[in-house]
């Protein structure tokens, strides 16, 4: 360009245009916006006064992020100016490659660690003790803090309940045609129901901000647990370029401010989560993060389809559609905006994940919405663990494993042989039967009426369904014992 204003301007050279573009990219990067390139490299080129000609920098290949991961193909021009949120932090895919000695449960525990489970145990224990102190008449059963193996066995049983669906929770310990003996060998019915009753995810002694107060959070009761799992999902897997963000419904009809009605969804009433999933694998995280220039288009399919994009122009591509001509249906190739075709190809990540989850989702009846969110999140991380197993280079022999087999393996390995029953038989008595029947536990009227000692233990061990009260018992040991009804 000439230094005098009288000369006719003949336009910028290609080098000047590229140099101006690079200066603009530096300015964007300093404000936290930009493409994948090294700012220091470009600044050093721009500050070199020894060169008279503009120095060009290969913007597309100057960054630390690899170019063969699907992030920078076909979109080099239009994605300039996008925020760093859309750049991979590292090599995409799994961030921890487990060795061949690791088992299926190790993939699941990448997300649900023993430390997080211990936090849930402590919060549940504090909640149970607080309820017993505040309402002793409503919480009479003796409570003991669950151990880590017991809590894992509890979660393992809920996974199995999602596979073997019964009308209600008590049916898993029934003695009729619905009997499944395995559940009773792991946890007694009353103990399972007790852990379910006091399951909690926040500090019960901490005051919760109410609606209208500063720092109010409607998701406070599950915020700690969800944040911990989201962080683990972000740490364990970095998605490739094509991701989808969609709604994810948790069935719930109780009273809660989070409940929504969505008539177009299969689950119309429930708690809505926003989920981000990789389009190819369905690898999902319940987490959201936009800006820059955009292109918009409206395409007429069966209905008008409106699309806005920050990485596309208005170029066209071909799609296959079935159309009716002269009473016959034929497949034809039609022109379609590329942004619409890309959206259609990559929109189903969340739906694919939700489809797998709904197969074996433990959806029990409860008035406590945090428990619904808890079990939904467990299913999400179980599905993510299944995808990590399929992508593991050291576990290729398990690539043919179905999600059902994976779910059963996770459940049984969480239980890991845990049982509350003592299968060891006691030492037999040396006294003859006649002596034991006449010299021990002589019945008498004890005056007061209370639960039968034998019935109480039989119900606790699931060998009897009901317990009875009686005023009779043994004079020597002062234990109440119900008498058989005589005809």
What does this protein look like?
The chain is an alpha+beta fold and 487 residues long. The protein contains 14 helices and twelve strands. 23% of the residues are buried. Mean pLDDT is 75; it is low at 1-6, 32-67, 75-86 and 433-437.
Name the beta content range. 15-25%
Beginning-to-end CA distance, first to last residue: 118 Å
Q: Helix share of residues?
A: 25-40%
Over the alpha carbons, how many angstroms does the gyration radius reach? 32 Å
List low-pLDDT spans.
1-6, 32-67, 75-86, 433-437
Spatial shape: elongated
Count of extended strands = 12
Task: Note the total helix count.
Answer: 14
- Structure class: alpha+beta
What is the average of the pLDDT values?
Answer: 75
H/E element string? HHEHHHHHHEEEEEEEEEHHHHHEHE
Largest sheet: 4 strands, antiparallel
Secondary-structure topology with pairs:
Layout: H1 14-30, H2 39-46, E1 93-94, H3 104-108, H4 114-134, H5 148-163, H6 181-186, H7 189-198, H8 220-236, E2 237-238, E3 243-251, E4 259-261, E5 269-278, E6 284-285, E7 295-300, E8 304-309, E9 316-325, E10 328-337, H9 338-346, H10 349-359, H11 369-391, H12 403-415, H13 433-439, E11 443-451, H14 453-460, E12 469-474
Antiparallel strand pairs: 1-2, 3-5, 4-5, 5-6, 7-8, 9-10, 11-12
